[in-house]
Amino acid sequence: MCGIVGYIGPRQAGDLLVSGLRRLEYRGYDSAGVAIANGELEVRKKEGKVDELAALLENRPVEGTVGMGHTRWATHGAPTDTNAHPHTATHGRFAIIHNGIIENYVSIKRRLLEKGYTFDSETDTEVLAHFIEDVQEETGLSFPESVRQALTQVEGAYGIVALSMDNPDELVVARNGSPLLLGVGEGEHFVGSDASPFIEFTRHVVYLNDGEMAVVRRDGYDVSEINGAPVSKEVHELEWDLEEIEKGGFEHFMLKEIMEQPEALENAMRGRVRADEGTIKLGGLEYVTKELESADRIVICACGTSWHAGLVGEYLIERFARIPVEVEYASEFRYRDPVLTEGDVVLVISQSGETADTLAAVRQAKQAGVLALGVVNAVGSTIARETDAGVYLHAGPEIGVASTKAFTAQVTVLAQIALLLAQKRGTISDESLRQHLDALAAIPEQIRTVLETDEQIQAIAREMRLAQNALYLGRGLNFPVALEGALKLKEISYIHAEGYPAAEMKHGPIALIDRFMPVVFVATRDATYEKVVSNIEEVVARQGSVIAITDAGNRDLDELAEHVIEVPKTADAFEPLLTVVPLQLLSYHVAVMRGCNVDQPRNLAKSVTVE
Ligand code: M6R
Questions:
Q1: Strand order in 87-89's β-sheet?
Q2: Inter-axis angle of helices 261-269 and 430-451, to 10 degrees?
Q3: Does the CB atom of residue 352 touch ligand 1 within 6 A?
Q4: 120 by DSSP, 3-state: which?
Q5: Cα of 358 to ligand 1 centre, how many Å?
Q6: Which helix (H) or strand (E) element contains residue 590?
């Protein structure tokens, strides 16, 4: 979703802001803009991609060493030049960029209209700009204090950066519900909605919490609560470096991230899965293991791909640890007033650690007084900081909007949690634990083998690229994989795709099947295999074209399916880690062949920070 970068220091801000905005492109956006202080405030903004903004800046360059940049993902008003940020007020003397949604902007706007203010855009952000202007005029306060005063009357979510010609040697930033952090350099400071725009300059960061604001200068910063009290902040050091957030020779981030899954999973298990000792160590859960192992129920909350990983987690935790698990869409969780009682544990899963609905589930859990745990990739993200404890994925930054390595790393971590709990609760024998740890440790190497099917998958993609609909079917642990395969295809190739439990096909989707409908079966030889083969027969009988993912050496499906993709045999419980990989590659190649923007699919954002 929207991206923010800010800079104050000795460097020319223009190029730095544009390159920062390019790094934020992965979040999804539809217009971009900058404001730079240069004796007066110079604003350049443009609908479309950062390239178009860069071209505008080339035609009308701006000098200056203080500025801010924004990529906007439209919420209020269409993606147009006028609605793009920054928005200005006080006759262009100050500018603001904003991520999030001002919920009471209509009533504020009404009051401002009555006072004679006029608005150029349809955005809630311009309303905020004029509101700050109005507060300053009414109170005579300094610019930072006027921002503070205005924000105390604002409802909703925001991450903002504001720059006023009253004092062009400071940036005023504030956060409530939309991530924002400061980058701390020598004689220079940065602001970002994440660290990617400034990571090449500094790895020292200060995370702002909700309800905090900061005045940032070249030589320092002051953080305070929006309601006034000063706050002293810790400086953290980031683990990720620039190389990790660049494409490294791959055409797209998505392909890079699919291909780096073996290493990502090795990292997700490093020092944790001790196959030789038959033990698992999850440092992040050490202090809560007792509470977790005696939980009456685990409620998993997540969105999108992370929700699919949660469904796999449900199978794994119930199968191994015999603790009842429920999986909830985080976006629905709080709205149905969930019953959370003593003995419940809420476990949220989020790659970005910033998904607004998932964060709300954490807060709901804490309000109910139950333990809130996180399985998160982005170190230092809001969810990572607000949960009571948790496990990092250590999968490295995921930039492609379509989540790939995060999914397999999430399942890997959930498998570890399930086995750890099973061991503690005595619901798994030592021998079975050892076998499963061995199987888990072997997965990265097996994924390397699956990745070798890439050419075969490209050939299948060539046929599939013309489809208008596709069905993905699986049972048991392969049902969430079917859901994930369908989500991957639709989000990046715009082919309509549905995932279903294979046996449910007869209850509706079978009506869609004809020779133009590719049906992807995840059909590994587990307990439900025979039944899945019958479902394949039913599709073939209706001339559906079957693509089957199955175990290496299984020849049963050769006659039935048009294409059979083989994956190495692993323990049944870990099959999703292998069967999902061909589906990621398939959607990637179909999308590329259809000329789609794989890394930044239309309308989608990497980090969904609005509810
Ligand atoms: O960062 P999160 O894991 O919380 O994100 C959740 C979803 O927004 C995300 O998985 C989304 O569905 C992806 N685009 C799927 O590829």
A1: 87-89, 94-102, 156-164, 171-176, 212-216, 221-225, 230-231
A2: 160
A3: yes
A4: coil
A5: 10
A6: helix 575-593
**Can you tell me whether residue 293 is helix, strand or coil?**
helix
Q: How far is it, in rounded angstroms, from Cα 218 to Cα 537?
A: 69
pLDDT exceeds 80 at position 605: no
**CA-CA distance, 150 to 134, in Å (whole number)?**
9
Task: Kindly report whether the peptide bond that precedes residue 509 is cis, defined as omega within 30 degrees of 0.
Answer: no
Q: Whose CA is nearest to atom 7 of ligand 1?
A: 304
C-beta separation of 583 from 549 below 8 A: yes
Atom of ligand 1 nearest to the CA of 607: 1
- For residues 603 and 585, give the distance between their C-alpha atoms in angstroms, rounded to a whole number: 22
Q: Which of 387, 368, 365 is nearest to 378 (CA)?
A: 387
The residue-averaged pLDDT of 177-196 equals 93
Sign (positive or negative) of CA dihedral 287, 386, 237, 390:
positive
C-alpha to C-alpha distance for 7 and 36, rounded to whole angstroms: 9
Q: Which atom of ligand 1 is nearest to the CA of 358?
A: 4
| Residue 359 Cβ < 6 Å to ligand 1 | no
Strand ranges inside 77-220, DSSP E: 87-89, 94-102, 156-164, 171-176, 181-184, 189-192, 204-207, 212-216
The one-character DSSP state at 177 is B
Q: Domains of the chain, with CATH numbers? A: 3-232 (3.60.20.10), 239-451 (3.40.50.10490), 452-601 (3.40.50.10490)
459 token code pair: 């050939």
pLDDT tier at 1 (50, 70, 90 boundaries)?
low
Q: How far apart are CA 454 and CA 259, in angstroms?
A: 10
**pLDDT band at 100, cuts 50/70/90?**
confident
Does the Cβ of 351 fall within 6 Å of ligand 1? yes
Residue 416's contacts (CB-CB under 8 Å, 6 or more residues apart) are 269, 272, 273, 280, 282, 391, 440
Q: Give the bridge partners for 213, in sequence order.
A: 174, 224
Q: Could you tell me if 417 and 391 are in contact, meaning their C-beta atoms sit under 8 angstroms apart?
A: yes
pLDDT at 412: 98
Q: Which residues pair with 42 in a beta bridge?
A: 36
**Which of helix, strand or coil describes residue 205?**
strand
The residue nearest atom 12 of ligand 1, judged by CA position, is: 304
β-pair type (189-192, 181-184): antiparallel
Which amino acids are annotated catalytic? Answer: 2, 606
pLDDT at 241 over 80: no
- CA 603 to ligand 1 center in whole angstroms: 13
State the DSSP H helix or E strand holding residue 124, giving kind and residue range, or none if neither. helix 124-139
Read off the pTM: 0.80
Q: Please report the sign of the dihedral spanned by the C-alpha atoms of residue 24, residue 25, residue 31, residue 34.
A: positive
Query: Could you give the C-alpha distances from 354 to 3, 186, 362, 383, 554, in angstroms and in order?
Result: 13, 28, 11, 6, 42
Does residue 305 line the site of ligand 1, with CB under 6 A?
A: yes
Residue 445, number of CB atoms within 10 A of its CB: 12
| Distance spanning both ends of the chain, measured CA to CA | 12
Distances (CA, A) of 213 to 216, 228, 342: 10, 9, 36
Three-state secondary-structure class, residue 470: strand
- Report the alpha-carbon distance of residue 210 to residue 179 in Å, rounded: 8
What mean pLDDT is predicted for residues 438-460?
Answer: 97
CA distance 239 to 195: 11
